[in-house]
Protein: 1-deoxy-D-xylulose 5-phosphate reductoisomerase
Amino acid sequence: MTVRRITLLGATGSIGRSTLDLVERNPEAFEIEALTANRSVTVLAEQARRFGARLAVVADPDCYSDLKEALQGSGIEAAAGADAVAEAARRPSDLVVAAIVGSAGLPPTLAAVERGAAVVLANKEALVCAGPLMVAAVARHGATLLPADSEHNAIFQVFEQEERAAIERIILTASGGPFRTFSREAMADVTPAQAVAHPNWDMGAKISVDSATMMNKGLELIEAHYLFALPEQQIEILVHPQSVIHSLVGYADGSVLAQLGVPDMRTPLAYCLSWPRRMSAPVDRLDLAGLGQLTFESPDEERFPPLRLAREALRTGGAAPAVLNAANEMAVAAFLEGRLGFLDIAAVAESVLAQQVPRAPASVAEVLEVDAQARVAAAETIRQRASA
Ligand SMILES: NC(=O)c1ccc[n+]([C@@H]2O[C@H](COP(=O)([O-])OP(=O)(O)OC[C@H]3O[C@@H](n4cnc5c(N)ncnc54)[C@H](OP(=O)(O)O)[C@@H]3O)[C@@H](O)[C@H]2O)c1
Structure:
């Protein structure tokens, strides 16, 4: 493999750190062009020095002087602001890893696509908010989307493009999260600490809460629809608590192909970083005999309404997925800050989705406008529920 230069958006997060772990173990294969974060200046500066980055960017402009100071004498360029993050994505590099959390990742991810880059996509919210625009931009600019989400990466590995007419369905597996066996009554009182304690995966706070509400699987359903160009009816969800089978593709001859592995994001990330080849990843090897059994359950849309909301948003189309995503981001943040109950997260998303579904956005500016309006509506709904 020739050396690949990487621009890593969201370097200080869970996916960012897993990516850098792979880079560090394969110094002959990768170099770092640019690293970005929101406000984690100390970690970002330390990463930039360790990996010899050319550029380090913080999205929050208030952090610029701290970053400059932390990089003093290193020769590493410092920059700040959302536009500077998008500029980082535009710089020439072989791979852009999109690992910012939330719709904040949309402009830089799209900027990378628009320069025809190979984009390792972890930031599912970017595709959820702007799926049709993103898919069109990928085709227009000859970009490549490499799905890093473990489920989509699994499908990508077993999806026979040349046989796509024979693909009947894809099956996204879901761990069910920490409250898989909880009643609605029991879920009413869960705390942020309980919600972020995922049974199988070690992830950032927002996606951990999304896993607990199963909004994560709803967002992944939308993500899969855009990534694999399949209608919602051909995308199934299967609860599989062990998170060993990462997803499956069903073919017309009855064959079902799956990708398996221990739940460690360094496997799908390694696949993306080395695609179309494979590289070694320092993950535990799967021991099926040791596990003994794998189990499966049907998803429960009554206890986990986000599964239904995501399907409804896809059927509604237009800006509905962007509205759902923005309302969810606001509600999850309020829950993590202790301003909202766990069950209120889905209720806020459902209420905002019912209030406003503007027509399909025609540009990224329109997506951001929809996102902003949905956030205003969500803030008001959260305020009302919190004071009820
Ligand atoms: N973690 C996983 O295992 C996993 C698996 C599949 C998919 N994903 C997806 O990958 C993405 C990242 O998840 P994560 O778990 O790595 O999240 P995380 O640990 O919370 O990290 C988020 C990263 O984004 C940066 N960031 C946050 N807000 C930003 C903003 N407004 N502008 C620019 N940068 C911002 C953060 O910087 P600071 O450190 O400065 O806040 C951090 O570098 C999400 O879309 C998630 O759904 C994650």
The first strand starts at residue 4 and ends at 9.
